Amino acid sequence: MALIINGASRDDLETLHTIEQQCFTGEAWSKRQIAMFLQARDSVTLAARENDEILGFVIGLVNQYDGMKIGHIVTIDVSPKHRRRGIGKTLLSSIEQEFKNAGVKVSYLEVREDNIAALRLYRRAGYSEFERLENYYSRGGHGLRLEKNLLL
Question: Distance between CA atoms of 117 and 120, rounded to whole angstroms?
Fold first, then answer.
């Protein structure tokens, strides 16, 4: 069956939290934090589903900065057993489209600098580094902030 991308809801919370724990272990968002994202007015949460199973999800926020709408991708998660199928790429392009529909001009995200697979995905999608984040992650892990102009 085909992959379907649609909105996630509070009913999906347990599954989203489980996938988040599988993907990020010690740095995972808590169930409470995910629930807050699901309910936030400025949040966009999309799930990738196949045969009614959630394979991954993405959470983004739409914020105003100096009169311009900015999209912040908070997390992209794909269940380990469903990786390497293009689901992360599909989720990324889907949230970018949602951002564009909301009038967002620039999208940004943070990633561990040693997360080679994620960096490859983001760079191929047109994201570029604009800030190094010293000790941003647990255990002294450095991060990178990447951005993409959605108007191009």
Answer: 5
Looking at this protein, which amino acid is placed at residue 56? G
Shortest CA distance to 17 belongs to which of 44, 40, 52, 45? 45
DSSP line for the chain: ---EEEE--GGGHHHHHHHHHHHHGGGPPPHHHHHHHHH-TTEEEEEEEETTEEEEEEEEEEEEETTEEEEEEEEEEE-GGG-SSSHHHHHHHHHHHHHHHTT--EEEEEEETT-HHHHHHHHHTT-EEEEEETT-SGGG--EEEEEEETT-
Q: Dump pLDDT digits (tens) for 10-62.
A: 999 999 999 998 988 777 888 999 999 999 999 999 999 999 899 999 999 99
Say yes or no to pLDDT of 151 above 90: no
Task: Name every residue whose Cβ is closer than 8 Å to that of residue 85 and which is 6 or more positions away in sequence.
Answer: none
pLDDT at 140: 67
Domains and CATH numbers, the chain: 4-149 (3.40.630.30)
The pTM is what? 0.89
